[in-house]
Design goal:
- With 107 residues, the protein is mainly α.
- 78% of the residues lie in helices and 0% in strands.
- The protein has five helices and no strands.
């Protein structure tokens, strides 16, 4: 795990919008490297993005009433992003990155 210091509870203390903005940082890196043909770098960012999503699934909004909806949306995002990444679909990746832009502007 590359985000060891976040798994100790720091991630759970972060607001959801900030968690999503951090996920977005990794999706942008993965997309950028994929577009440049640097598959090795793209896969590293892709793995980091998945780690952050796993942390959000494990700790995001614990105890809140809308947690089920959050998890459903987050899992759907992951499914779409992973499929587009593995297919090399840069247009879909760009659209998914724009979705995450909204969270970056909240912070």
């Amino acid at each position: 795990m590359q985000h060891d210091k976040l798994s100790n509870g720091a991630w759970a203390d972060m607001p959801f919008a900030k968690q999503m903005a951090n996920i977005g940082s990794e999706t942008y890196r993965a997309t950028k490297w994929l577009a440049k043909g640097r598959r090795d770098n793209a896969e590293k960012a892709f793995e980091r993005m998945q780690e952050l999503i796993d942390l959000t699934i494990a700790y995001g909004r614990l105890g809140q009433t809308n947690r089920k909806a959050l998890l459903k949306e987050l899992c759907r995002f992951r499914e779409l992003y992973c499929g587009a990444f593995l297919d090399g679909d840069l247009d879909t990746l760009a659209a998914l990155n724009r979705y995450l832009d909204h969270f970056a502007h909240i912070n």
